[in-house]
Amino acid sequence: MDKMNQMEELNKEIGSCAKCRLSKTRIKSVPGEGPLDAEYFIVGQGPGANEDKTGRPFIGRAGKLLTELLALAGLDRYKETFITSIVKCLPTPPLNRKPKPDEIAACHDYLARQIELFGAKKIILLGDVAFKEFFKKEKFSDWRGKWRESGGRKYFISYHPAAGIRFQKFKKILEHDFKNLVRGNEKN
Ligand code: SF4
Predict the structure, then answer these.
(1) How far is Cα 53 from Cα 142, in angstroms, rounded to an integer?
(2) What is the best residue among 12, 13, 17, 98 to mutate for testing ligand 1's pocket, by most ligand atoms within 8 Å of CB?
(3) Sign of CA dihedral 162, 43, 110, 39
(4) Pocket of ligand 1, beta carbon within 6 A
(5) Would you say 82 and 35 are in contact if contact means Cβ atoms under 8 Å apart?
(6) What structural domains does the chain harbor?
(7) Which residues contact 46 (CB under 8 A, 6 or more apart)?
(8) Atom of ligand 1 at shortest distance to CA of 23?
(9) What is the model's pLDDT at position 87?
(10) 3-state SS of 89-138?
(11) What's the CA gap between 31 and 119, in Å, rounded?
């Protein structure tokens, strides 16, 4: 099966998944979006209400900010990145809560298979929940705004754009971080 078919199969599986309680409250699963040859693989926390309605990642205000941040890094969101999240269904109730450990564990296999399928070598982790999924024993604050290598992949760590929507202070830090994420500057 070629990669496109594999991705479509995986998306179907995610679309009908009932491995955790979030399947009972979601409208649509949100597998992720982006071209198969994307150079950057982006991982957020989980879908919000707009994403739940449409099945597409990062389409609300945080998504608009993410698109702008990627442009600061010289990246075209739609041509050069694949965007997904730790859990593929809206965490609720309450609306937009953090996903629980058992929900993250139930969804882990989908993320692992996507990383494999995309052959992701440069992964951008947005926020503490995404960071902890990859680096359980490490402190987010030690790595924010930096690239780090692990297991033959490079990871760039920053806040979730939703934090930048809520607080100007975080928006400034995000802008600073993404200006450092320029192509060819992955070794800092
Ligand atoms: S969050 Fe993941 S594991 Fe849970 S129902 Fe959705 S796709 Fe399945």
Answers:
(1) 36
(2) 17
(3) positive
(4) 14, 17-20, 22-23, 29, 87-89, 103, 106-107
(5) yes
(6) 36-180 (3.40.470.10)
(7) 85, 86, 87, 88, 89, 90, 91, 99, 129
(8) 5
(9) 98
(10) CCCCCCCCCCCCHHHHHHHHHHHHHHHHHHCCCEEEEECHHHHHHHCCCC
(11) 17
Residue with tokens 């490079």: 154
- 57, 7 contact by CB (below 8 A): no
**pLDDT at residue 187 above 60?**
no
Number of residues assigned to the chain: 188
Burial class, 140, CB count within 10 angstroms (exposed 0-12 / middle 13-18 / buried 19+): middle
CA-closest residue to ligand 1 atom 2: 107
pLDDT bucket at 153, cuts 50 / 70 / 90: very high
Best mutation site among 52, 89, 100 for ligand 1 pocket (most ligand atoms within 8 Å of CB): 89
* pLDDT classification of 1: cutoffs 50, 70, 90: confident
Does residue 172 surpass a pLDDT of 60? yes
**Span 11-58, pLDDT tens digits:** 999 999 999 999 999 999 999 999 999 999 999 999 999 999 999 999
